[in-house]
Amino acid sequence: MLKLWGRPTSTRTLKVLWTLAEIDLAFEFILASATMGPQGSVTKGHRPHGIVDGPAYRAMNPNGTVPTIDDDGFILWESNAIVRYLAMRYAPTLLYGGDVATFARAAQWMDWDNAELMRGQHTLVMQLVRLPAAQRDLTQIESARNELIAAFRIIDAELGRRRFIAGEHFSMGDIPIGVHTHRWYLYDLERPPMPNLARWYAELQGRRAFQRWVQNPAHHLAG
Ligand SMILES: N[C@@H](CCC(=O)N[C@@H](CS)C(=O)NCC(=O)O)C(=O)O
C-alpha cells in the first residue's frame, strides 16, 4: 500500500491528499513534521509530529520536508512531482484528459502556483495563524495580501477564458491553486471581488475529494 508522510496542515501535503482522494487510492498516512504537531505549531511551544529529522526519513528525503511517498518501493518527494506521478500512474484521464498538452498546461500552473502563491500564502499562515500574537507584523501581512491579490488577478483572468485552469475539464492543475484559493477565502482579510475565481472555487468545493481533505478548517486555521 502506498505510504504518505506529511501533515494535513501543510498545503503541499494537502495537494497529495486531494489527488489520492480523486483517484480513490488506499494509502497509509504517517504524520510527520518538524514544525507542526497534534496541538499546533512549534512557534507556540507545541511538540512536532517528528520523524522528518530521523536518518530513515532523511535517507528517503534529504530535505527533511514533507510530503514524501513510498509507492511499493518507489520513493518520491517534491509535492508537484508527486501529484504528477500519481496522475500519470493512476489516473491520466481524470487528471489531465490523457493528453500531453493538457498535462503540460496543468504542470505550468502547478509550477506557477509554487512560484507565485506559495510565498505570500506562507507569510499569511505564519502571521495570521501560527505565530504568537505578539510576534505578528501588520506590514508583512499587508505586503503578502497585495502580492496575492496581484497573483489571483492573473488566475481570475485565466478562468474568464476557461472553465478550469488547464481547459474545460478539471485537471491536476486545479489542485495546488485550489488549495491556496481555499486558504485565501478562509482568512479574515479584505479581498477585491474576482468573479471567475469565485465561480471556479465554488465548483471545486463540490468535489468529494476536496471535501474529504481540503475543506476541514482545522487543516488551515489550527495553529
Ligand atoms: N518544494 C517542496 C517543499 C516542501 C516543504 O517545504 N514542505 C513544508 C510543508 S508545506 C515542510 O516540510 N515544512 C516543515 C515541516 O513541516 O517540518 C515541495 O513542494 O514538496
Please give a structural write-up.
The chain is α+β, with helices and mostly antiparallel strands and 223 residues long. The protein has helices at 11-23, 55-60, 79-90, 92-96, 100-116, 118-130, 138-161, 174-186, 195-205, 208-213, 218-221; strands at 2-6, 27-31, 36-37, 40-41, 68-71, 74-77. The chain has a 4-stranded mixed sheet, covered by helices on one side. A two-stranded antiparallel sheet has the order 3-4. β5 and β6 (74-77) form a beta hairpin. α1 (11-23) packs across α8 (174-186), α5 (100-116) packs parallel to α8 (174-186) and α6 (118-130) packs across α7. The longest helix is centred in the last third of the chain and has 24 residues, at 138-161. The two termini are 31 Å apart. The model has no long low-confidence stretch (mean pLDDT 97). Glutathione binds next to α1.
List the helices and strands and how they pair.
Blueprint: E1 2-6, H1 11-23, E2 27-31, E3 36-37, E4 40-41, H2 55-60, E5 68-71, E6 74-77, H3 79-90, H4 92-96, H5 100-116, H6 118-130, H7 138-161, H8 174-186, H9 195-205, H10 208-213, H11 218-221
Parallel strand pairs: 1-2
Antiparallel strand pairs: 1-5, 3-4, 5-6
Bound molecules: glutathione (GSH).
Residues 10-12, 33-36, 52, 65-67, 78-79 line the site of glutathione.
